[in-house]
Amino acid sequence: MELELRHLRVLCAIADSGSVGRAAVALGFTQPAVSTQLRRIERLLGEGLFVRSSAGMELTAYGADVVSQAREILTRADALVRRRTDVPAPAAGPLRLGVTNTPVVPMLLEALRETSPDLTVSVSSVYATGELLRQLESGELDAVLGCDYPGLPVRHSAALAHRAINTVPIFVALPAAHPLAHRVEVPLEELSEDTWFVSSDDGVGWPGAFYDACQAAGFQPAGTHEFHVLDQLQSMIAKGMGVTAVQPTLRPIDGVLVKPLAGDPLWQRHLLIWRREAVPAPVVEALHHHAVRTYRNLLAQAPHLQRWLARAYTTTRLPDGLRTMGGGSGV
User: Fold this and answer.
1) 318: helix, coil or strand?
2) By CB atoms within 10 Å of each CB, which of 12, 96, 115, 285 scores lowest?
3) Is residue 330 in some structural domain?
4) 3, 37 in Cβ contact below 8 A?
């Protein structure tokens, strides 16, 4: 069996619907046929992509990576078979976009301004994805860039839809003078005596996911500060006042090192979430496309992530064309 575009469409349909049955209906197949295809795809890739839960079919961390790249492949393939005049441009008009703590906003807005000049975007910055979801549900926003965590998928009403942008490991920022600064990867349990800066409740699983990982590593942090003002936070870490979990796109200041956590105990998924009736399909596609490209560019500029990827690729079975988060082929 060779991986084909139709297989990627099956994966995306299951991820979007959260159910093999609903994916089968959307694709016009029988449920047994979709289940059989999924088993064949997982055998081909050598690893499970979904797990069953009370909420339905949920992506594993690896599955989220595969589906994120599959979407980009399908977008490019569809563009090859459409005439340019047949591709709808994003509609003119206002778009109320909410964003959480993400570095993609400047580059994303620049890309939208260049490619969709008639689309007027107003941005609201809100830390908590949970609050962004509330504003979406109430009609105060049209679309948001938020996040969730593997095993803790975002929940929303049928009025909303979401699509993964990427899934990335969470790293740790520590002082350059830290006793573990020489380590290539830092075991989470060896940070048990450190003071941690922990950002506040985001309404979708943080900091619970962090404390669960600490518990699985056999400890609870000795001391914590609730803090998420990044520039001040990095200054305090540089002065040796503590450590913190960070996105791999973080650019550390002098005196701060960013390191992967051994075994990758923490992951974060970035999402585009929108109101189905408020955002036309071409706008959704433009937002998602440029968010994926922006994240890809930022991740490619993070040397600590590139070193992690180089090691990960030697120990995992990522098929060519579906490798995510690195270099030129994907997020």
Assistant:
1) coil
2) 115
3) no
4) no
Distance CA 166, CA 319 (A): 17
Spatial distance between the Cα atoms of 68 and 64, rounded to a whole number of angstroms: 6
| For helices 281-300 and 105-115, angle between their N-to-C axes, nearest 10 degrees | 130
DSSP state of 252: P
C-alpha to C-alpha distance for 237 and 234, rounded to whole angstroms: 5
Residue 329 domain-assigned (yes or no): no
- Please give the Cα distance from 198 to 152 (Å, whole number): 18
Residue carrying structure tokens 């995992």: 316
211-263 residue pLDDT tens: 999 999 999 998 889 877 778 899 999 999 999 999 999 999 999 999 999 99
Q: Which helix or strand (DSSP H or E) is residue 132 part of?
A: helix 129-137
For residues 183 and 259, the answer to whether their CB atoms sit within 8 Å is: yes
Domain hosting residue 113, numbered range: 88-168+268-315
Q: Record the tokens describing residue 26, joined without a space.
A: 């959307």
Helix and strand counts by DSSP (H, E) for the chain: 10, 12
Number of C-beta neighbours around residue 132 at 10 A: 28
Q: Taking the alpha carbons of 207, 213, 216, 219 in that order, is the dihedral positive or negative?
A: negative
Strand partners of residue 98: 124, 144
The residues, any chain, with a CB within 8 Å of residue 311's CB and separated by 6 or more, are 184
Torsion sign, CA atoms 257, 263, 265, 271? positive
The residue count of the chain comes to: 331
Alpha-carbon distance of 111 to 92, in angstroms, equals 15
152: domain CATH number? 3.40.190.10
- Whether the ω angle into residue 207 lies within 30 degrees of 0, i.e. cis, is yes
Antiparallel, parallel or unpaired: β 195-198 and 160-169: unpaired
Same domain, 25 and 105: no
Among residues 261, 263, 284, 260, the alpha carbon closest in space to that of 274 is found at: 284
pLDDT 10s digits, 125-153: 999 999 999 999 999 999 999 999 888 88
Looking at the fold, whether 14 and 123 belong to one and the same domain comes out as no
